[in-house]
Specification:
3-stranded parallel sheet; mainly alpha; about 55% helix; 12 helices
Protein backbone atom coordinates (compact mmCIF):
# COMPACT_ATOMS: atom_id res chain seq x y z
CA UNK A 1 0.00 0.00 0.00
CA UNK A 2 1.64 3.23 -1.12
CA UNK A 3 0.72 6.85 -0.49
CA UNK A 4 1.62 10.01 -2.41
CA UNK A 5 1.64 13.47 -0.84
CA UNK A 6 2.79 16.82 -2.19
CA UNK A 7 3.45 20.33 -0.97
CA UNK A 8 3.29 23.38 -3.24
CA UNK A 9 6.07 25.99 -2.96
CA UNK A 10 3.72 28.97 -2.84
CA UNK A 11 5.76 30.29 0.08
CA UNK A 12 8.16 29.25 2.81
CA UNK A 13 7.29 26.16 4.88
CA UNK A 14 5.68 27.36 8.10
CA UNK A 15 5.00 25.88 11.52
CA UNK A 16 1.53 24.70 10.52
CA UNK A 17 2.89 22.82 7.49
CA UNK A 18 5.55 21.22 9.66
CA UNK A 19 3.40 20.19 12.64
CA UNK A 20 0.36 19.30 10.55
CA UNK A 21 1.99 17.30 7.75
CA UNK A 22 5.76 17.25 7.27
CA UNK A 23 6.61 15.90 10.73
CA UNK A 24 3.97 13.18 10.34
CA UNK A 25 5.37 12.19 6.93
CA UNK A 26 8.80 11.77 8.50
CA UNK A 27 7.53 9.76 11.46
CA UNK A 28 4.87 7.60 9.84
CA UNK A 29 5.71 7.30 6.15
CA UNK A 30 5.99 3.77 4.76
CA UNK A 31 8.81 2.43 2.61
CA UNK A 32 6.73 2.81 -0.58
CA UNK A 33 5.33 6.25 0.19
CA UNK A 34 6.50 9.22 -1.88
CA UNK A 35 6.54 12.94 -1.13
CA UNK A 36 7.11 15.65 -3.69
CA UNK A 37 7.53 19.39 -4.04
CA UNK A 38 4.72 20.37 -6.43
CA UNK A 39 6.40 23.28 -8.20
CA UNK A 40 4.49 22.75 -11.47
CA UNK A 41 1.29 23.29 -9.49
CA UNK A 42 2.64 26.70 -8.51
CA UNK A 43 2.46 27.89 -12.14
CA UNK A 44 -1.33 28.04 -12.54
CA UNK A 45 -1.30 31.70 -11.47
CA UNK A 46 1.23 34.50 -12.13
CA UNK A 47 4.50 33.78 -10.34
CA UNK A 48 8.14 34.80 -10.17
CA UNK A 49 10.22 32.00 -11.81
CA UNK A 50 13.34 32.64 -9.74
CA UNK A 51 11.40 32.71 -6.49
CA UNK A 52 9.51 29.53 -7.39
CA UNK A 53 12.79 27.75 -8.15
CA UNK A 54 14.32 28.94 -4.88
CA UNK A 55 11.28 27.93 -2.82
CA UNK A 56 11.24 24.48 -4.42
CA UNK A 57 14.84 23.87 -3.37
CA UNK A 58 14.10 25.18 0.11
CA UNK A 59 11.09 22.91 0.52
CA UNK A 60 13.06 19.90 -0.68
CA UNK A 61 15.74 20.67 1.92
CA UNK A 62 13.13 21.04 4.68
CA UNK A 63 11.46 17.72 3.84
CA UNK A 64 14.79 15.91 4.03
CA UNK A 65 15.87 17.84 7.13
CA UNK A 66 12.65 16.80 8.85
CA UNK A 67 13.72 13.17 8.52
CA UNK A 68 12.04 11.92 5.34
CA UNK A 69 14.19 9.40 3.44
CA UNK A 70 15.81 11.37 0.57
CA UNK A 71 15.05 8.53 -1.83
CA UNK A 72 11.32 9.05 -1.21
CA UNK A 73 11.37 12.78 -2.01
CA UNK A 74 11.48 14.47 -5.40
CA UNK A 75 10.72 17.74 -7.14
CA UNK A 76 7.79 17.54 -9.52
CA UNK A 77 9.40 19.47 -12.38
CA UNK A 78 12.27 16.98 -12.49
CA UNK A 79 9.69 14.62 -14.01
CA UNK A 80 8.25 17.29 -16.30
CA UNK A 81 8.70 15.25 -19.49
CA UNK A 82 6.99 12.19 -18.05
CA UNK A 83 4.22 14.20 -16.39
CA UNK A 84 3.69 16.32 -19.50
CA UNK A 85 3.16 13.25 -21.66
CA UNK A 86 0.85 11.55 -19.16
CA UNK A 87 -1.10 14.76 -18.52
CA UNK A 88 -1.85 14.95 -22.26
CA UNK A 89 -3.02 11.32 -22.25
CA UNK A 90 -5.34 12.11 -19.36
CA UNK A 91 -6.58 15.34 -20.95
CA UNK A 92 -7.52 13.18 -23.94
CA UNK A 93 -9.45 10.97 -21.52
CA UNK A 94 -11.16 13.79 -19.61
CA UNK A 95 -14.25 15.71 -20.72
CA UNK A 96 -14.33 19.51 -20.62
CA UNK A 97 -17.38 19.47 -18.37
CA UNK A 98 -15.60 17.29 -15.82
CA UNK A 99 -12.72 19.75 -15.55
CA UNK A 100 -14.91 22.86 -15.59
CA UNK A 101 -17.10 21.67 -12.72
CA UNK A 102 -14.17 21.36 -10.31
CA UNK A 103 -14.99 23.58 -7.32
CA UNK A 104 -11.46 24.97 -7.03
CA UNK A 105 -11.48 26.06 -10.67
CA UNK A 106 -14.78 27.83 -10.17
CA UNK A 107 -13.61 29.57 -7.01
CA UNK A 108 -10.18 30.62 -8.25
CA UNK A 109 -11.37 31.77 -11.68
CA UNK A 110 -14.45 33.64 -10.49
CA UNK A 111 -14.18 37.34 -11.36
CA UNK A 112 -10.66 36.92 -12.72
CA UNK A 113 -9.59 38.23 -16.12
CA UNK A 114 -7.10 36.28 -18.18
CA UNK A 115 -7.40 33.01 -16.26
CA UNK A 116 -4.64 30.60 -17.26
CA UNK A 117 -5.72 27.45 -19.07
CA UNK A 118 -3.57 25.51 -16.60
CA UNK A 119 -6.03 26.40 -13.85
CA UNK A 120 -8.64 24.42 -15.76
CA UNK A 121 -6.36 21.51 -16.66
CA UNK A 122 -4.63 21.36 -13.27
CA UNK A 123 -6.68 18.32 -12.16
CA UNK A 124 -5.26 16.33 -15.11
CA UNK A 125 -1.73 17.15 -13.93
CA UNK A 126 -2.66 16.12 -10.39
CA UNK A 127 -4.06 12.88 -11.79
CA UNK A 128 -0.79 12.33 -13.66
CA UNK A 129 1.16 12.84 -10.43
CA UNK A 130 -0.89 10.14 -8.75
CA UNK A 131 -1.24 7.62 -11.58
CA UNK A 132 2.38 7.78 -12.75
CA UNK A 133 3.53 6.60 -9.32
CA UNK A 134 0.81 3.95 -8.92
CA UNK A 135 -0.26 5.36 -5.57
CA UNK A 136 -2.98 3.41 -3.76
CA UNK A 137 -3.90 6.22 -1.40
CA UNK A 138 -3.73 10.00 -1.59
CA UNK A 139 -4.05 11.80 1.76
CA UNK A 140 -5.88 15.07 1.02
CA UNK A 141 -8.10 17.60 2.67
CA UNK A 142 -11.69 18.10 1.62
CA UNK A 143 -10.64 20.83 -0.84
CA UNK A 144 -8.72 18.28 -2.93
CA UNK A 145 -10.99 15.26 -2.57
CA UNK A 146 -12.91 16.15 -5.75
CA UNK A 147 -9.66 16.09 -7.74
CA UNK A 148 -8.84 12.59 -6.49
CA UNK A 149 -12.33 11.45 -7.45
CA UNK A 150 -11.70 12.76 -10.96
CA UNK A 151 -8.41 10.86 -10.99
CA UNK A 152 -10.31 7.67 -10.15
CA UNK A 153 -12.79 8.37 -12.94
CA UNK A 154 -10.05 8.94 -15.53
CA UNK A 155 -8.09 5.84 -14.44
CA UNK A 156 -11.19 3.64 -14.66
CA UNK A 157 -12.16 5.12 -18.04
CA UNK A 158 -8.68 4.63 -19.48
CA UNK A 159 -8.39 1.08 -18.16
CA UNK A 160 -11.85 0.21 -19.44
CA UNK A 161 -11.26 1.72 -22.88
CA UNK A 162 -7.66 0.82 -23.67
CA UNK A 163 -6.53 -1.80 -21.15
CA UNK A 164 -5.41 -2.01 -17.54
CA UNK A 165 -2.53 0.33 -16.81
CA UNK A 166 -3.40 2.41 -13.79
CA UNK A 167 -3.97 1.64 -10.12
CA UNK A 168 -7.30 3.09 -8.98
CA UNK A 169 -6.35 5.37 -6.08
CA UNK A 170 -8.56 6.49 -3.25
CA UNK A 171 -8.60 9.69 -1.27
CA UNK A 172 -7.99 9.34 2.45
CA UNK A 173 -8.24 11.99 5.11
CA UNK A 174 -4.89 12.23 6.87
CA UNK A 175 -4.80 11.82 10.66
CA UNK A 176 -5.79 15.01 12.43
CA UNK A 177 -2.69 17.12 12.93
CA UNK A 178 -2.05 20.40 14.64
CA UNK A 179 -4.29 23.12 13.21
CA UNK A 180 -2.03 26.09 13.65
CA UNK A 181 -3.63 29.50 13.27
CA UNK A 182 -2.05 32.81 12.34
CA UNK A 183 -0.56 34.37 15.48
CA UNK A 184 -1.74 37.83 14.45
CA UNK A 185 -5.22 36.67 13.43
CA UNK A 186 -6.20 33.38 15.11
CA UNK A 187 -9.46 33.26 13.13
CA UNK A 188 -7.54 32.10 10.03
CA UNK A 189 -5.04 29.33 9.35
CA UNK A 190 -1.34 30.04 9.23
CA UNK A 191 -0.55 30.36 5.51
CA UNK A 192 2.55 30.26 3.28
CA UNK A 193 1.05 32.99 1.12
CA UNK A 194 -0.03 35.36 3.90
CA UNK A 195 0.57 38.97 2.90
CA UNK A 196 1.75 39.88 6.39
CA UNK A 197 4.23 37.39 7.86
CA UNK A 198 4.12 38.89 11.35
CA UNK A 199 1.82 36.09 12.50
CA UNK A 200 3.54 33.27 10.61
CA UNK A 201 6.41 31.25 12.07
CA UNK A 202 8.51 29.75 9.30
CA UNK A 203 10.48 26.52 9.68
CA UNK A 204 13.75 28.30 8.91
CA UNK A 205 13.18 31.35 11.11
CA UNK A 206 15.99 32.22 13.51
CA UNK A 207 15.24 31.64 17.22
CA UNK A 208 14.97 35.35 17.97
CA UNK A 209 12.48 35.80 15.11
CA UNK A 210 10.36 32.95 16.48
CA UNK A 211 10.39 34.36 20.00
CA UNK A 212 9.52 37.85 18.79
CA UNK A 213 6.55 36.64 16.71
CA UNK A 214 5.17 34.51 19.53
CA UNK A 215 5.53 37.28 22.09
CA UNK A 216 3.51 39.52 19.78
CA UNK A 217 0.81 36.91 19.28
CA UNK A 218 -2.75 38.14 19.72
CA UNK A 219 -4.34 37.01 22.98
CA UNK A 220 -7.82 37.52 24.28
CA UNK A 221 -9.59 39.08 27.22
CA UNK A 222 -8.93 37.59 30.61
CA UNK A 223 -5.83 37.04 32.66
CA UNK A 224 -5.76 33.32 33.43
CA UNK A 225 -4.84 30.96 30.55
CA UNK A 226 -7.65 28.60 29.53
CA UNK A 227 -8.21 26.49 26.45
CA UNK A 228 -11.43 27.92 25.01
CA UNK A 229 -11.21 27.95 21.19
CA UNK A 230 -14.59 29.60 20.69
CA UNK A 231 -14.16 32.51 23.09
CA UNK A 232 -10.37 32.81 23.34
CA UNK A 233 -8.96 31.63 19.99
CA UNK A 234 -5.61 33.38 20.45
CA UNK A 235 -4.75 31.62 23.70
CA UNK A 236 -6.21 28.35 22.40
CA UNK A 237 -3.90 28.57 19.38
CA UNK A 238 -0.82 29.02 21.58
CA UNK A 239 -1.81 26.12 23.84
CA UNK A 240 -2.44 23.86 20.84
CA UNK A 241 0.99 24.71 19.41
CA UNK A 242 2.53 23.92 22.80
CA UNK A 243 0.68 20.60 22.96
CA UNK A 244 1.84 19.67 19.45
CA UNK A 245 5.46 20.35 20.41
CA UNK A 246 5.52 19.00 23.97
CA UNK A 247 2.69 16.50 24.06
CA UNK A 248 -0.30 16.50 26.37
CA UNK A 249 -3.66 18.18 25.98
CA UNK A 250 -4.07 21.95 25.57
CA UNK A 251 -6.54 22.08 28.47
CA UNK A 252 -4.16 20.33 30.86
CA UNK A 253 -1.26 22.51 29.78
CA UNK A 254 -3.26 25.65 30.46
CA UNK A 255 -3.46 24.75 34.15
CA UNK A 256 0.35 24.88 34.41
CA UNK A 257 0.47 28.64 33.83
CA UNK A 258 -0.74 31.65 35.75
CA UNK A 259 -0.21 34.30 33.06
CA UNK A 260 -0.36 34.79 29.31
CA UNK A 261 3.26 35.88 29.27
CA UNK A 262 4.37 32.58 30.79
CA UNK A 263 2.45 30.68 28.12
CA UNK A 264 4.10 32.69 25.36
CA UNK A 265 7.57 32.06 26.78
CA UNK A 266 6.88 28.33 27.03
CA UNK A 267 5.51 28.18 23.49
CA UNK A 268 8.51 30.07 22.13
CA UNK A 269 10.92 27.70 23.90
CA UNK A 270 9.06 24.63 22.64
CA UNK A 271 8.85 25.83 19.03
CA UNK A 272 12.50 26.86 18.94
CA UNK A 273 13.51 23.44 20.29
CA UNK A 274 11.23 21.63 17.82
CA UNK A 275 12.48 23.49 14.76
CA UNK A 276 16.17 23.83 15.67
CA UNK A 277 17.35 20.52 14.12
CA UNK A 278 15.25 21.08 11.00
CA UNK A 279 16.64 24.57 10.48
CA UNK A 280 20.19 23.36 11.07
CA UNK A 281 19.98 20.42 8.65
CA UNK A 282 18.08 22.35 5.99
CA UNK A 283 20.53 25.25 6.13
CA UNK A 284 23.46 22.84 5.74
CA UNK A 285 21.81 21.25 2.70
CA UNK A 286 21.04 24.60 1.10
CA UNK A 287 24.64 25.69 1.64
CA UNK A 288 25.95 22.47 0.04
CA UNK A 289 24.62 22.93 -3.48
CA UNK A 290 26.34 19.82 -4.87
CA UNK A 291 24.93 17.55 -2.14
CA UNK A 292 21.39 18.87 -2.48
CA UNK A 293 21.59 18.43 -6.25
CA UNK A 294 22.83 14.86 -5.76
CA UNK A 295 20.01 14.02 -3.38
CA UNK A 296 17.49 15.68 -5.67
CA UNK A 297 18.71 13.74 -8.69
CA UNK A 298 18.58 10.43 -6.82
CA UNK A 299 15.02 11.05 -5.67
CA UNK A 300 13.92 12.01 -9.17
CA UNK A 301 15.51 8.92 -10.69
CA UNK A 302 13.72 6.64 -8.25
CA UNK A 303 10.37 8.30 -8.95
CA UNK A 304 11.01 8.17 -12.70
CA UNK A 305 11.93 4.49 -12.64
CA UNK A 306 8.88 3.70 -10.54
CA UNK A 307 6.52 5.25 -13.09
CA UNK A 308 8.21 4.79 -16.47
CA UNK A 309 6.56 1.47 -17.34
CA UNK A 310 3.10 2.94 -16.70
CA UNK A 311 3.74 5.88 -19.00
CA UNK A 312 5.16 3.64 -21.74
CA UNK A 313 2.15 1.32 -21.48
CA UNK A 314 -0.34 4.21 -21.50
CA UNK A 315 1.25 5.77 -24.60
CA UNK A 316 1.31 2.44 -26.40
CA UNK A 317 -2.29 1.57 -25.57
CA UNK A 318 -3.70 4.96 -26.51
CA UNK A 319 -2.03 4.70 -29.92
CA UNK A 320 1.10 6.77 -29.36
CA UNK A 321 4.63 5.59 -28.67
CA UNK A 322 7.79 6.90 -27.09
CA UNK A 323 10.11 8.55 -29.66
CA UNK A 324 12.56 6.20 -31.37
CA UNK A 325 15.54 5.58 -29.12
CA UNK A 326 13.72 6.91 -26.07
CA UNK A 327 11.70 5.45 -23.26
CA UNK A 328 10.47 7.56 -20.40
CA UNK A 329 13.41 8.28 -18.14
CA UNK A 330 15.99 6.71 -20.48
CA UNK A 331 17.83 8.50 -23.27
CA UNK A 332 20.22 6.93 -25.74
CA UNK A 333 22.39 10.03 -25.84
Amino acid sequence: MSKLSGITPSGHVHLGNYLGAVRRWAREGGADDLYFVADLHGMTTPHNPGKLRSLAREQLAVLIAAGIDPERVFVQSDLARELGALTWVLECTCNYGEAARMIQFKEKSKGQAGVRLSLLTYPALMAADILLQGADEVPVGEDQRQHVELTRTLAKRFNGTYGDVFTIPRAVLPPAGARVKDLADPTRKMSKSARDAVGVVFALDEPDQIRRKIRRAVTDGGSVPVHAPETRPGMANLLEILAACRGGSPADLASEFSSYGAVKDAVADAVIEELAPVRSRASALLDDVAELDRVRKAGAERARERGSHRLDAALRMIGAAAPIGYQSGHSTS
